[in-house]
Amino acid sequence: MSATFTHRVLPYDGVNEFLGGAVPFLGDGLAAGDRVQVVCGVGLEHLLRDALGRDAERVEFTDAARWYAHPTRTLADCLSDAEAMDGEGRRLRLLGEPVWARRGPLEVLEWQRVEAILNVAFRETGAAIMCPYAATLPPGVVAAGRRTHPETVRGARSVPNPGYIDPWTFSARCDLEPLPPPPVHADELKVDRPDLYWLRAYVTDYARRTPLPGEELQRLLVAVTELVTNAERHGAPPIVLRMWTDGAGGEPAFVCEVSDAGRWPPDAGFGLVPPRRAEAGTCGRFGLWAVRLLCTLVQIRTGPAGTVVRLRLPLPGIGDGG
């Protein structure tokens, strides 16, 4: 495809600024025969339908709360759509307003990382993505939006964004803060020779003493299997599994981490971008991408002291500790 991938931020303060950037973007896509999709809330959908008139019938409107449900799954689904359109010689044109409200700080950080990483993942698809950011959002969210989008929209024009930084640099900054140490009540198991059957039974027994839903437990078991296998193959002993429940920051979660004494190379990728087939099984890349698909939040720290991969799965509601 001859089209070049674009990823633009649309900062707006009021209806006129929103429509002034969104309508030309969508109109250009309809005129070019693109697959045009809008992901937003009900209010913006009504505004766009009124502004587009009959052309709105050719636009796919999707509810933002449903679409922006899980960072890695949303990235994977959207990338699949973009690649499918590219294979047909067409372009995916997406206007998507991320959902920032009612998310905790850790989840906000992961969605900001996705905004950065899609500049790598979509690079060869020819997709056109525009992300509206309302002036009423927290200043930190708006500032991050300018760092994760190569271009800024001003009316019908787009200009290079001087605040944009390299996606991998942005992602590394997301991981600068050390992880809080496990609580004293965390369940701990040293894994000498992984027997995956008994390991899964051990995790199941602990998890069933918490409010973790059954569907999330099944995802956790697959994820833990991937992490322990990866630590055994590519890490260094000791391998330690820890589990606990946590209500920090108002985000009740089942927490599970696997640590080892190994250090990942700088190009490990951290499972943030879907691996090519030739990469599957190397440096844990395929496994970590699968783990990110399975779990709500995946935090990774690696350095001279070793590597920790920490999973956080949402709980229906708990108090601090557990």
From TrEMBL:
Annotated TM spans: none
Protein name per the record: Sensor histidine kinase
Pfam families xref list: HATPase_c_2, MEDS
UniProt organism field: Actinomadura algeriensis
Domain Histidine kinase/HSP90-like ATPase per the UniProt entry, residue ranges: 199-312
Domain of life: Bacteria
InterPro entries on file: Anti-sigma-factor_SerPK (IPR050267), HATPase_C_sf (IPR036890), HATPase_dom (IPR003594), MEDS_domain (IPR025847), RsbA-like_anti_sig (IPR047718)
Record domain MEDS: where: 6-150
Organism lineage: Bacteria, Bacillati, Actinomycetota, Actinomycetes, Streptosporangiales
Keyword Transferase applies: yes
PANTHER family referenced in this protein's UniProt entry, alphabetically: ANTI-SIGMA-F FACTOR RSBW (PTHR35526:SF3), ANTI-SIGMA-F FACTOR RSBW-RELATED (PTHR35526)
Keywords: Kinase, Serine/threonine-protein kinase, Transferase
